[in-house]
Design a protein that fits this description.
This protein has about 450 residues and is α+β, with helices and mostly antiparallel strands. The chain has 18 helices and ten strands.
Length: about 450
């Protein structure tokens, strides 16, 4: 069987009646692309649904694929027309630009790009209606999936991953203890940093004239600046986790983000500036659009300033991501600013946390049923009815468990001072469990 025949046999069926919504059409085309369909097959599907011929052209005007058999330089698009179409598409205003091809063919353009990644334009033959253009717009993600297969990872992305690893390794304790292997940081950057500013070139100054740079810090400042990261300004590390099963789709999704990442299996790391909580949501929503809703978790470590402190934000992000992955499925984001008691507990050594948990929860530490009951009891302000509904227990069973907790711990779980201690101990226990789970 030919490749096109194999793809047709494996093609998912569009579970929508004659007029699919753009969202349903986008999902269907993405499944085709992940199944191996190339640009010709995708354009054939678009032409079938819209009822008009279509062409895919690069930003330079080069014809990449067509549904009508067009091929070669004589069918290329006018570069100026394509550039105008891309500007209009990014602005999101006005009627889609009319693009003319060398052979006289004309079509309305839908920009194909995501973030800093720009492929070109999808052209629909004139005349074309708004509904047809909406379906063409729904095809852009699938076309970009195929674009990823046509290119190798840009050197800048590889270099950015090297920079992120160096930042995670750190420069030692910025409060004054001996610096880490600064030579190793510089060596790592030189080994993986082709194209980065070299020693002696101008890089961003340290924040606020904070004094001389520590060993390795100048290299990291320059390397970060090469990728748009102002490490001398407040920034936070974002941790991203994928809970789905389609690793190939996950890898493609990461490549479409508008920022470089360090990808490590089902997890990835990057840096955020500005409104971190908003950026966390934006990252998650963008990835959800590609891999499917509910399969991505995103956290952010504390805001820090200076490359010597980025490692601390990395540690926060790593532990918060582990914590979030233990939470209920509806919990999909955990920026540092919303982490509650964990904001404080992340700075406490594990040994001290274990002592605190043992001191205040020791007698029930082995009883998950009592720990869950105590957590719900504190969360509901001591409502037996609410705890009963949450844990699916009879009210009498709730009363029995609470009485047992009081006897074993020797405290009243609703005494104001005791409530604060017990809440902290439960949060510390969960943080330790998340860290130890790996």
């Amino acid at each position: 069987m030919s490749r096109s025949g194999e793809l047709a046999a494996a093609r998912p069926r569009l579970a929508v009646a004659a007029a699919p919504s753009p969202a349903a059409f986008a999902q269907w085309l993405a499944e085709l692309a992940f199944g191996g369909a190339g640009w010709p097959e995708l354009l054939a599907a678009v032409a079938e649904r819209t009822g008009v011929a279509c062409r895919l052209v690069a930003e330079s005007g080069e014809l990449l694929a067509a549904s009508d058999g067009a091929d070669g330089p004589r069918c290329a698009a006018a570069p100026d027309d394509v550039r105008r179409a891309l500007v209009t598409g990014r602005a999101g205003t006005g009627v889609p630009t009319l693009v003319r091809c060398v052979d006289g063919w004309t079509g309305r353009a839908v920009a194909v790009g995501a973030g800093s990644r720009r492929l070109g334009a999808l052209l629909l033959a004139e005349p074309v209606a708004a509904g047809q253009l909406a379906l063409a717009g729904a095809a852009t993600t699938a076309l970009l999936i195929e674009a990823v297969r046509h290119e190798s990872p840009p050197p800048a992305v590889r270099d950015a991953a090297t920079v992120l690893r160096a930042l995670r390794d750190g420069l030692g304790d910025p409060t004054g203890s001996p610096a880490g292997p600064a030579g190793g940081v510089a060596g790592l950057l030189r080994a993986g940093g082709a194209g980065l500013p070299q020693a002696g070139e101008t890089g961003p100054p340290p924040a606020g004239g904070a004094g001389p740079l520590r060993p390795g810090e100048a290299e990291l400042l320059r390397a970060g600046a090469a990728h748009g990261w102002r490490l001398d300004q407040p920034h936070a590390v974002a941790g991203i986790a994928y809970t789905g099963a389609q690793q190939r789709r996950w890898a493609s999704a990461l490549s479409w983000l508008d920022r470089p990442v360090l990808a490590e299996g089902r997890r990835a790391w990057t840096l955020l500036h500005g409104d971190v909580e908003r950026e966390v949501t934006r990252l998650r929503v963008r990835l959800d659009q590609i891999v499917g809703a509910g399969q991505v978790r995103v956290v952010a470590g504390a805001l820090v300033t200076g490359p010597a402190r980025t490692a601390a934000s990395f540690r926060d992000a790593d532990r918060l991501l582990r914590l979030l992955l233990r939470a209920p499925d509806e919990c999909v984001e955990l920026p540092f600013g919303q982490a509650g008691l964990a904001q404080v507990l992340l700075a406490v050594p594990d040994e001290r946390l274990r002592w605190f948990v043992h001191r205040h929860l020791g007698p029930i530490a082995h009883r998950d049923d009592l720990l869950r009951t105590l957590d719900c009891w504190l969360a509901t302000g001591g409502s037996r009815q609410a705890v009963s509904e949450r844990l699916h227990l009879h009210r009498n069973s709730v009363g029995y468990r609470v009485g047992l907790i009081k006897r074993l711990l020797g405290v009243d779980p609703l005494d104001p001072q005791t409530v604060a201690v017990l809440r902290t101990a439960l949060a510390a226990r969960e943080l330790l469990a998340a860290s130890e789970a790996g």
